[in-house]
Protein backbone atom coordinates (compact mmCIF):
# COMPACT_ATOMS: atom_id res chain seq x y z
CA UNK A 1 0.00 0.00 0.00
CA UNK A 2 1.27 3.44 -0.92
CA UNK A 3 1.15 6.30 1.59
CA UNK A 4 0.23 9.37 -0.46
CA UNK A 5 -0.31 12.03 2.19
CA UNK A 6 -0.27 12.54 5.96
CA UNK A 7 -1.70 15.47 7.90
CA UNK A 8 -2.27 15.91 11.63
CA UNK A 9 -3.92 18.29 14.04
CA UNK A 10 -3.65 18.81 17.81
CA UNK A 11 -6.90 18.65 19.80
CA UNK A 12 -7.14 19.92 23.37
CA UNK A 13 -10.28 18.91 25.27
CA UNK A 14 -11.12 20.22 28.73
CA UNK A 15 -12.15 17.54 31.21
CA UNK A 16 -15.42 18.02 33.05
CA UNK A 17 -13.44 17.67 36.29
CA UNK A 18 -9.79 17.14 37.27
CA UNK A 19 -8.60 13.55 36.86
CA UNK A 20 -6.25 12.54 39.67
CA UNK A 21 -4.12 9.39 39.83
CA UNK A 22 -1.02 8.49 41.85
CA UNK A 23 1.37 9.67 39.14
CA UNK A 24 -0.28 13.05 38.52
CA UNK A 25 -3.43 14.97 37.63
CA UNK A 26 -4.86 16.58 34.51
CA UNK A 27 -7.61 19.00 33.57
CA UNK A 28 -7.32 18.54 29.80
CA UNK A 29 -6.97 15.63 27.38
CA UNK A 30 -4.55 16.19 24.50
CA UNK A 31 -4.66 14.13 21.32
CA UNK A 32 -3.03 14.46 17.90
CA UNK A 33 -5.37 13.18 15.18
CA UNK A 34 -3.59 11.73 12.16
CA UNK A 35 -5.13 11.66 8.67
CA UNK A 36 -3.46 9.35 6.13
CA UNK A 37 -4.37 9.09 2.43
CA UNK A 38 -3.80 6.23 0.00
CA UNK A 39 -5.41 6.73 -3.39
CA UNK A 40 -9.02 7.70 -2.77
CA UNK A 41 -9.07 6.19 0.73
CA UNK A 42 -8.59 8.06 4.01
CA UNK A 43 -7.53 6.45 7.29
CA UNK A 44 -7.44 7.99 10.75
CA UNK A 45 -5.21 7.45 13.75
CA UNK A 46 -4.50 9.11 17.07
CA UNK A 47 -1.38 9.85 19.10
CA UNK A 48 -1.88 10.63 22.78
CA UNK A 49 0.83 12.34 24.88
CA UNK A 50 1.38 10.53 28.17
CA UNK A 51 3.70 10.20 31.14
CA UNK A 52 4.37 6.48 30.60
CA UNK A 53 6.30 7.01 27.36
CA UNK A 54 7.25 10.58 28.33
CA UNK A 55 5.84 12.01 25.11
CA UNK A 56 4.32 15.48 25.04
CA UNK A 57 2.25 17.34 22.50
CA UNK A 58 5.39 19.08 21.25
CA UNK A 59 7.51 15.92 20.99
CA UNK A 60 4.72 14.17 19.11
CA UNK A 61 4.38 16.98 16.58
CA UNK A 62 8.17 17.15 16.18
CA UNK A 63 8.41 13.39 15.59
CA UNK A 64 5.53 13.50 13.10
CA UNK A 65 7.35 16.26 11.23
CA UNK A 66 10.27 13.84 10.85
CA UNK A 67 8.28 10.68 10.10
CA UNK A 68 5.91 12.28 7.60
CA UNK A 69 8.43 12.89 4.79
CA UNK A 70 10.17 9.59 5.57
CA UNK A 71 7.10 7.44 4.78
CA UNK A 72 5.08 9.69 2.49
CA UNK A 73 5.19 8.62 -1.14
CA UNK A 74 6.49 5.14 -0.33
CA UNK A 75 4.96 1.74 -1.00
CA UNK A 76 4.67 -0.64 1.96
CA UNK A 77 3.60 -4.19 0.99
CA UNK A 78 3.16 -5.22 4.63
CA UNK A 79 2.36 -3.58 7.95
CA UNK A 80 5.61 -4.94 9.37
CA UNK A 81 7.57 -3.05 6.73
CA UNK A 82 5.73 0.13 7.64
CA UNK A 83 6.41 -0.38 11.37
CA UNK A 84 10.07 -1.17 10.73
CA UNK A 85 10.42 1.90 8.51
CA UNK A 86 9.20 4.14 11.34
CA UNK A 87 11.61 2.51 13.79
CA UNK A 88 14.55 3.16 11.44
CA UNK A 89 13.75 6.87 11.26
CA UNK A 90 12.79 7.63 14.88
CA UNK A 91 13.73 5.67 18.00
CA UNK A 92 11.17 5.27 20.78
CA UNK A 93 8.17 7.62 20.57
CA UNK A 94 5.60 4.78 20.57
CA UNK A 95 2.56 7.06 20.85
CA UNK A 96 3.59 8.87 17.66
CA UNK A 97 4.03 5.57 15.87
CA UNK A 98 0.70 4.37 17.24
CA UNK A 99 -1.04 7.30 15.56
CA UNK A 100 0.45 6.44 12.18
CA UNK A 101 0.08 2.68 12.68
CA UNK A 102 -3.63 2.97 13.47
CA UNK A 103 -4.22 5.11 10.37
CA UNK A 104 -2.27 2.61 8.25
CA UNK A 105 -4.33 -0.28 9.63
CA UNK A 106 -7.53 1.66 8.92
CA UNK A 107 -6.49 2.00 5.28
CA UNK A 108 -5.46 -1.64 4.95
CA UNK A 109 -8.79 -2.78 6.39
CA UNK A 110 -10.63 -0.56 3.90
CA UNK A 111 -8.47 -1.92 1.09
CA UNK A 112 -9.41 -5.47 2.12
CA UNK A 113 -13.08 -4.56 2.42
CA UNK A 114 -13.60 -5.72 6.01
CA UNK A 115 -14.01 -3.94 9.37
CA UNK A 116 -10.79 -3.44 11.33
CA UNK A 117 -11.66 -6.06 13.94
CA UNK A 118 -12.08 -8.64 11.16
CA UNK A 119 -8.86 -7.54 9.48
CA UNK A 120 -7.08 -8.15 12.78
CA UNK A 121 -8.51 -11.67 12.97
CA UNK A 122 -11.20 -11.00 15.56
CA UNK A 123 -14.96 -10.99 15.60
CA UNK A 124 -15.66 -14.29 17.31
CA UNK A 125 -17.57 -12.58 20.12
CA UNK A 126 -20.10 -9.78 20.01
CA UNK A 127 -19.47 -8.32 23.46
CA UNK A 128 -16.93 -8.16 26.25
CA UNK A 129 -16.79 -6.70 29.73
CA UNK A 130 -15.24 -3.25 30.01
CA UNK A 131 -14.89 -0.88 32.94
CA UNK A 132 -15.22 2.79 33.80
CA UNK A 133 -12.41 4.42 35.73
CA UNK A 134 -12.91 6.33 38.96
CA UNK A 135 -10.04 8.67 39.78
CA UNK A 136 -8.69 9.43 43.23
CA UNK A 137 -11.30 11.36 45.19
CA UNK A 138 -13.02 11.19 48.57
CA UNK A 139 -15.14 8.16 49.44
CA UNK A 140 -18.47 9.93 49.04
CA UNK A 141 -17.63 11.14 45.54
CA UNK A 142 -16.24 7.73 44.56
CA UNK A 143 -19.40 5.98 45.75
CA UNK A 144 -21.55 8.42 43.78
CA UNK A 145 -19.48 7.77 40.65
CA UNK A 146 -19.65 4.02 41.17
CA UNK A 147 -23.43 4.05 41.58
CA UNK A 148 -23.80 6.22 38.50
CA UNK A 149 -21.77 3.91 36.25
CA UNK A 150 -23.45 0.77 37.56
CA UNK A 151 -26.82 2.38 36.85
CA UNK A 152 -25.57 2.98 33.30
CA UNK A 153 -24.99 -0.77 32.90
CA UNK A 154 -21.31 -1.21 33.72
CA UNK A 155 -20.43 -4.34 35.64
CA UNK A 156 -16.74 -3.55 36.12
CA UNK A 157 -15.11 -0.50 37.71
CA UNK A 158 -11.46 0.49 37.89
CA UNK A 159 -10.61 2.48 41.02
CA UNK A 160 -7.43 4.55 41.10
CA UNK A 161 -5.33 4.43 44.29
CA UNK A 162 -1.79 5.06 45.48
CA UNK A 163 -1.61 8.40 47.28
CA UNK A 164 -3.06 7.39 50.67
CA UNK A 165 -3.17 3.62 51.30
CA UNK A 166 -5.31 3.88 54.42
CA UNK A 167 -7.80 6.17 52.71
CA UNK A 168 -7.69 3.96 49.61
CA UNK A 169 -8.83 0.96 51.64
CA UNK A 170 -11.70 2.93 53.15
CA UNK A 171 -12.76 4.14 49.72
CA UNK A 172 -12.65 0.66 48.21
CA UNK A 173 -14.72 -0.74 51.06
CA UNK A 174 -17.28 2.01 50.58
CA UNK A 175 -17.46 1.34 46.83
CA UNK A 176 -17.81 -2.40 47.34
CA UNK A 177 -20.60 -1.90 49.86
CA UNK A 178 -22.36 0.50 47.49
CA UNK A 179 -22.25 -1.64 44.35
CA UNK A 180 -22.54 -5.09 45.92
CA UNK A 181 -20.81 -8.35 44.97
CA UNK A 182 -22.02 -8.45 41.37
CA UNK A 183 -19.69 -5.72 40.12
CA UNK A 184 -16.05 -6.47 39.35
CA UNK A 185 -13.57 -4.12 41.04
CA UNK A 186 -10.18 -3.48 39.48
CA UNK A 187 -7.61 -1.41 41.36
CA UNK A 188 -4.83 0.63 39.75
CA UNK A 189 -1.91 1.98 41.78
CA UNK A 190 -0.08 3.80 38.95
CA UNK A 191 3.30 3.13 40.60
CA UNK A 192 2.30 4.99 43.76
CA UNK A 193 3.22 2.41 46.43
CA UNK A 194 6.38 1.25 48.13
CA UNK A 195 6.76 -2.52 48.42
CA UNK A 196 5.86 -2.60 52.13
CA UNK A 197 2.86 -0.36 51.60
CA UNK A 198 1.70 -2.47 48.64
CA UNK A 199 2.03 -5.71 50.64
CA UNK A 200 -0.07 -4.27 53.46
CA UNK A 201 -2.60 -2.78 51.04
CA UNK A 202 -3.01 -6.06 49.14
CA UNK A 203 -3.67 -7.86 52.40
CA UNK A 204 -6.29 -5.29 53.45
CA UNK A 205 -8.24 -5.50 50.18
CA UNK A 206 -8.09 -9.29 49.89
CA UNK A 207 -11.53 -9.60 51.49
CA UNK A 208 -13.13 -7.17 49.01
CA UNK A 209 -13.10 -9.57 46.05
CA UNK A 210 -10.79 -7.35 43.98
CA UNK A 211 -10.12 -8.80 40.52
CA UNK A 212 -6.65 -7.31 40.07
CA UNK A 213 -4.10 -4.89 41.50
CA UNK A 214 -2.46 -3.03 38.63
CA UNK A 215 1.12 -1.71 38.69
CA UNK A 216 1.30 -0.59 42.34
CA UNK A 217 5.12 -0.33 42.30
CA UNK A 218 7.49 1.73 40.12
CA UNK A 219 8.03 0.22 36.68
CA UNK A 220 11.73 -0.34 37.34
CA UNK A 221 11.14 -2.33 40.53
CA UNK A 222 11.07 -5.82 39.04
CA UNK A 223 12.17 -7.46 42.28
CA UNK A 224 9.48 -5.68 44.28
CA UNK A 225 6.83 -6.72 41.78
CA UNK A 226 8.07 -10.30 42.01
CA UNK A 227 7.77 -10.32 45.80
CA UNK A 228 4.33 -8.72 45.68
CA UNK A 229 3.12 -11.17 43.02
CA UNK A 230 4.25 -14.09 45.16
CA UNK A 231 2.74 -12.75 48.40
CA UNK A 232 -0.51 -11.13 47.25
CA UNK A 233 -3.72 -13.13 47.01
CA UNK A 234 -5.04 -10.37 44.74
CA UNK A 235 -3.65 -10.98 41.22
CA UNK A 236 -0.98 -8.40 40.30
CA UNK A 237 -1.08 -6.89 36.81
CA UNK A 238 1.81 -5.15 35.03
CA UNK A 239 1.20 -1.98 33.04
CA UNK A 240 3.83 0.76 32.93
CA UNK A 241 6.65 -1.79 33.12
CA UNK A 242 5.65 -3.50 29.84
CA UNK A 243 6.23 -1.45 26.70
CA UNK A 244 7.92 -4.02 24.45
CA UNK A 245 7.98 -7.79 23.85
CA UNK A 246 11.27 -7.88 25.74
CA UNK A 247 9.61 -6.23 28.73
CA UNK A 248 6.87 -8.87 28.65
CA UNK A 249 9.51 -11.60 28.65
CA UNK A 250 11.23 -10.05 31.68
CA UNK A 251 7.95 -9.82 33.57
CA UNK A 252 6.99 -13.40 32.78
CA UNK A 253 10.30 -15.09 33.49
CA UNK A 254 10.91 -12.88 36.51
CA UNK A 255 7.48 -13.73 37.94
CA UNK A 256 6.74 -10.01 38.25
CA UNK A 257 3.00 -10.18 37.49
CA UNK A 258 0.15 -12.54 36.73
CA UNK A 259 -1.28 -10.47 33.86
CA UNK A 260 -0.43 -7.55 31.57
CA UNK A 261 -2.35 -4.46 30.50
CA UNK A 262 -1.79 -3.74 26.80
CA UNK A 263 -2.12 -0.19 25.45
CA UNK A 264 -1.65 0.93 21.86
CA UNK A 265 0.05 4.18 22.90
CA UNK A 266 2.81 2.57 24.94
CA UNK A 267 3.52 -0.26 22.46
CA UNK A 268 3.57 1.74 19.24
CA UNK A 269 0.23 0.81 17.69
CA UNK A 270 -1.70 -2.28 16.72
CA UNK A 271 1.12 -4.23 15.10
CA UNK A 272 3.58 -3.84 17.97
CA UNK A 273 0.82 -4.44 20.55
CA UNK A 274 0.08 -7.73 18.80
CA UNK A 275 3.75 -8.66 19.18
CA UNK A 276 3.60 -8.02 22.93
CA UNK A 277 0.35 -9.96 23.17
CA UNK A 278 1.91 -12.91 21.32
CA UNK A 279 4.69 -13.10 23.91
CA UNK A 280 2.15 -12.93 26.74
CA UNK A 281 -0.03 -15.63 25.20
CA UNK A 282 2.91 -17.96 24.62
CA UNK A 283 4.01 -17.46 28.23
CA UNK A 284 0.55 -17.99 29.69
CA UNK A 285 0.10 -14.39 30.81
CA UNK A 286 -3.49 -13.13 30.48
CA UNK A 287 -3.85 -9.68 28.92
CA UNK A 288 -6.28 -6.79 29.08
CA UNK A 289 -6.55 -3.95 26.55
CA UNK A 290 -6.54 -0.52 28.18
CA UNK A 291 -6.15 3.07 27.06
CA UNK A 292 -4.97 6.47 28.26
CA UNK A 293 -6.71 9.84 27.90
CA UNK A 294 -7.36 9.08 24.25
CA UNK A 295 -9.88 10.16 21.66
CA UNK A 296 -12.52 7.83 20.26
CA UNK A 297 -10.25 7.18 17.25
CA UNK A 298 -7.66 5.11 19.11
CA UNK A 299 -10.15 3.80 21.67
CA UNK A 300 -12.10 2.30 18.75
CA UNK A 301 -8.86 0.79 17.42
CA UNK A 302 -8.18 -0.68 20.84
CA UNK A 303 -11.65 -2.22 20.89
CA UNK A 304 -11.05 -3.77 17.47
CA UNK A 305 -7.79 -5.19 18.79
CA UNK A 306 -9.48 -6.60 21.89
CA UNK A 307 -12.24 -8.24 19.87
Q: What does this protein look like?
A:
There is one protein chain. The chain is of the alpha/beta class. 44% of the residues lie in helices and 22% in strands. The mean pLDDT is 97. It has two domains: 114 residues, Enolase-like, N-terminal domain (Enolase-like, domain 1, 2-Layer Sandwich); 187 residues, Alpha-Beta Barrel (TIM Barrel), CATH 3.20.20.120. The protein has a seven-stranded parallel β-sheet. It has a three-stranded antiparallel β-sheet with strand order 1-2-3, sandwiched between helices.
Q: What's the total helix number?
A: 12
Q: What is the CATH C-level name of the largest domain?
A: Alpha Beta
**Helix-strand pattern, N to C?**
EEEHHHHEHEHEHEHEHEHHEH
The biggest sheet, with number of strands, parallel, antiparallel or mixed sense and barrel status, is:
7 strands, parallel
Radius of gyration: 20 Å
Overall 3D form? globular
Question: In the CATH classification, which architecture of the largest domain applies?
Answer: Alpha-Beta Barrel
For the record, the count of structural domains works out to: 2
Question: What does this entry show, briefly?
Answer:
The chain is of the alpha/beta class and 307 residues long.
Amino acid sequence: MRVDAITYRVHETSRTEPFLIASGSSTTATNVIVRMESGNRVGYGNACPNSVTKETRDTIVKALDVLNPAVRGREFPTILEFADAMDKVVAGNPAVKAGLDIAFHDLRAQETGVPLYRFLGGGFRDRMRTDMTIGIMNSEAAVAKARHWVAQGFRALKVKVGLDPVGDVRRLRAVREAVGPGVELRVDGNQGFSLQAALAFAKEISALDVALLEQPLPAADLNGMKVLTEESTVPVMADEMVLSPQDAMRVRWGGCARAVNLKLMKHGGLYRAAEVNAVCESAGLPTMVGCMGESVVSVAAGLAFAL
